[in-house]
Structures are given as C-alpha cells and as structure tokens.
TrEMBL record:
Transmembrane segments: 12-29, 244-266
UniProt-recorded name of the protein: Uncharacterized protein
Keywords: Coiled coil, Membrane, Transmembrane, Transmembrane helix
Organism of this sequence: Steinernema hermaphroditum
Stretches assigned to coiled coil: 112-139
C-alpha cells in the first residue's frame, strides 16, 4: 500500500511538472501577443501631426529601407521583394490607424491640408513656422510613401511605371511646398529617397536615371548603390524562431524547478506517511 502511494505521488510530481512546463513555455512563446496594447490616442491636431511623423513615418521608412536592403542582399526576386514590402507597409498602416485613432487621417496628403489650414490660422510668425515645418514633414512623407509604392510596383514589374509618373509626382510635391513658402535643397530629396546610397544620388538624378538606379539595385543586385540601414530588425521568421527557443527554454527551466519544488513538498509528505504506516 505504501509503495503504491509512493508511485502515485511520483506520477503526480511528474504531471505537475509537465503542466507547469507547458504553461510557462506557452506564456514565454506567446508572451508578446498576450500582453494587451496600451493605446494612447493623440488629443489634438498638433499632437497628431507630430506623432504621425515622428512615431510612424520615420519608423516605417527605417524598416522599409532595412528590409529592402536585406532582401536585395539575399538576392531575392523582384516578386518576393514586392510581396514582403507590401505586407510590411500594410501592417504598418493598420498599426498606425490603431494607435492614432479615427479622429484624423494618417494619409500624408490630408495631413498636409491640415497643416496648411493651421498655417492660415496661425497668429504669430513662430506658430506659422511651426506649422510650415509640419507641412514640410507631410510632403516629405507623402513623397517617401509614393516611392515605397513605386519600389514595390517596380520590383514586381519593371514595365509597370514610366519616368513621367515620377516626374509628375515630384512636380506635385514641389508645388505643395511652394504653396506654403517652403523650399528644400536637392540634397534633401536625395536624403529622403529610400533604399539608395547618397553617393549614387549626387546630384539628385532625373526620374529616368533614378529608375535606372533602382532597376540595377533591385533586379541586378547592384549593392554599391544600396542605402545604409540605421536600425536592425528581425524578420517574421526570425521572430518566430526566437520566441520558439524562448518558449522551449522557459519550459525546460520551469519543468526542472517544478520537479524540484513539487518533488520536495510531496517527498516530505511521503516520508511522514511512511513513518505513520510503520
């Protein structure tokens, strides 16, 4: 009878340890998904414009440049590059709308109109300059997003876009800045051209030449004209593998700890039970 009770206690220790290992392993693996997001929406237009640019526009461009360079270095096909970057942009836009809320549009074209209206309503020169900078940021972001879309389309099908489309878009951006009495030097256009090295953009090339550079980088894997990345990110596959390893490690550690803790508790009870049965 005593031996049977001991065997049963051993099974309980093992099962308890396994359950603990599975539980903590699952929490470690799914941890980021289980933590609820804290959403802090902007409370006014100025805060919205600043956060849209500083938190989201800068973030997506940095990620876009990194993964664009990463995929080119891995010598992925144009189609694969387009698919990955499309998914990246879509997820970013969804996250931006979630965090910024529905009170205002994340679309940089509408943000420009908002900043332009705020310039007209500004009461001091300082306020006007502040709003002009916001208008400039919106235009630069609109151009950057336009080039993101261009890269995706051009990677998927080099014949889908003409140089005239880029010229027309650039003329529109320059006109918007002129409308708010803002001008930028050509080196600013080069510095905000995603995915390309500044050495290959000086002086800032015409649309046809710009397309040729992108073609060589995307389809001929010309790495010397590839832009430098300021941040490093994990791919979705790497993130999954990291969480999987973390889950396995947490499971093993929690199993060993649970085995020792539960075993010591049950073991002490078994000793007292054996003494009584003797």
């Amino acid at each position: 009878m005593a031996e049977r009770a001991l065997k049963l206690s051993e099974v309980c220790v093992l099962l308890g340890s396994l359950v603990t290992a599975v539980l903590f392993g699952f929490i470690a693996y799914k941890g980021p998904e289980l933590i609820p997001d804290y959403v802090d929406h902007p409370t006014d237009e100025a805060q919205f414009l600043d956060r849209a640019y500083n938190e989201f526009d800068m973030d997506i461009n940095t990620k876009f440049i990194f993964f664009f360079s990463h995929l080119v270095k891995k010598e992925k096909s144009g189609t694969n590059i387009a698919e990955y970057l499309t998914s990246l942009v879509d997820k970013h836009n969804e996250q931006a709308r979630k965090i910024l809320g529905d009170a205002w549009s994340y679309d940089p074209q509408e943000r420009y109109e908002m900043a332009k209206r705020r310039i007209e309503n500004a009461k001091t020169d300082e306020e006007k300059m502040e709003e002009k900078l916001r208008a400039l940021q919106a235009v630069l972001s609109e151009r950057t997003f336009h080039l993101h879309n261009f890269i995706i389309k051009y990677a998927n099908d080099p014949d889908s876009i003409s140089a005239s489309e880029l010229d027309e878009a650039q003329a529109k951006f320059e006109k918007k800045l002129k409308d708010v009495d803002m001008n930028v030097e050509e080196k600013i256009w080069s510095a905000t051209t995603p995915g390309l090295a500044l050495e290959c953009l000086s002086p800032h090339p015409k649309a046809e030449d710009l397309m040729n550079i992108y073609y060589k980088v995307i389809h001929l894997k010309l790495k010397k004209c590839m832009g430098t990345t300021v941040m490093t990110y994990l791919t979705e596959e790497q993130q999954h593998d990291r969480q999987m390893l973390l889950g396995v490690f947490a499971g093993i550690v929690s199993f060993i700890v649970a085995l020792l803790v539960i075993g010591s508790v049950v073991g002490s009870k078994d000793e007292s039970y054996l003494k009584k049965s003797q």
